[in-house]
Amino acid sequence: MLSIFRQYTFDDSFEQVFVSGKFLKEYQIALTFASDYDDNGVPTNGVFRPTWDTTKVTPESITRFKTEHQDVNIKVYISIGNRGSRFPFKPQDNKSWISNATKSLTSLIKSEEYDLQVDGLDVLYESIDASPSDFVECVGELITNLKEASLVREVSISPSFALNKEYYACLYDVSRLSINWVDYQFQNEVSSVFAPDTLVKRYNELVNEFYPKKKLFAGYSAENEDWGTLSPIVFFLGGMDILKKRRGPGVSIHYHNYYAEPPHKE
């Protein structure tokens, strides 16, 4: 069963994960988050900065991890967005947000200081304080700019229930040729997922209504507060069904201890 596994991480905890080419063809490190808010929580209108632990996520740690796992394709994503209700997507002006976001992420990706060998951009906003049209315009243009400049080879979007239909599905419709993966966050379902069959059913509904199966990941959070919606055992059994029987391309996990402190969740 060769699939893609993505770990959302704030630090270098990816170095402690068992990775083997016998089970995986690709391992994605998604760094959380690049944020357009300053240290005081004031929005900076698209001027993104890293909020992951830059003392632990270093060029050396990324290179070391890739060297130690040469039988697996290792990719690094920068995830823009937020968890919970803090730091929502909230552009002050679409044109300036697009310009600022393009410039700041270009600098971050090309930075000699960070030099993270970035392969992709992930968009994971759990809260949005803007209209669907503003979200689609801003993020869609950002994706186009980064791809056309060959700054990233891949782009993923990571929707959840509350924002999927009005925001992310519309973004996908406009930018489907530029979006390589859709990492749906099942821990944010409106009602609890108590059985593996329910998870698989929901996955199939997403395929039928919104996204092609060849692009659709099953996303999960192993943070303790999310277990009430989706427990580890339910996700494991349902996820294995999605990978093996439905031929889904991959899964992702937020680990319950990946934050040194939880700056993006309330």
Automatic annotation (TrEMBL):
Q: What is this protein's record name?
A: GH18 domain-containing protein
**What species does this protein belong to?**
Clitoria ternatea
Q: Which residues form the GH18 domain?
A: 1-266
The record, for InterPro entries, names:
Chitinase-like (IPR000677), GH (IPR017853), Glyco_hydro18_cat (IPR001223)
Q: Which GO terms describe its biological process?
A: carbohydrate metabolic process
Q: Which PROSITE patterns match?
A: GH18_2
Lineage of the native species?
Eukaryota, Viridiplantae, Streptophyta, Embryophyta, Tracheophyta
Domain of life of the source: Eukaryota
